[in-house]
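G., the chain you wanted modeled:
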Amino acid sequence: MRADLGDQAEQLLAASSTPEMMKAATSLRETALSIRRLLTRPFATGMPPQMDPSVLEPELRRAELADLAVDVVTATDYLIRLLGSPAVTASRLSLADRADPGGEGYSDEETFDMLTRRQLDARGTAVRLGMRLLSQLNSDVARADNGLSSDVRPQASEHGRV
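Predicted structure as tokens:
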């Protein structure tokens, strides 16, 4: 699962189209959720992740790593929401500081540019958090054969989302 996390973060960073970013963000989100499940319910999976012997408070560190996995999920959710936004919204509906005498806000081109910038910023945040989670898992979770190093796939909930 660690390898998946790194690969998915790299795929998200390399994605150049909205469908590619959406697919990569969804995969990264699902992997982060699976990692969180393994960290918060280690005995329910039958293979609890073993913390590195150098970790002084394993339960606290496991909770911190689970929180970081939630941050990855939140960042990817935000990105997915932005990617699903309409490409151009009506200028009348945008709240803006600058308005011309006609009372309109940003032009459609400016609105599209701002949305694109937000999407790219959100993508960068999701990638950074995913790589931070990977780095911290590599340093704090022992490399023994446990749930974080195996190829466990996320399970869908009753609503179809992971």
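Residues 88-96, 150-162 have pLDDT under 50 and may be disordered.

Shout if anything looks off.
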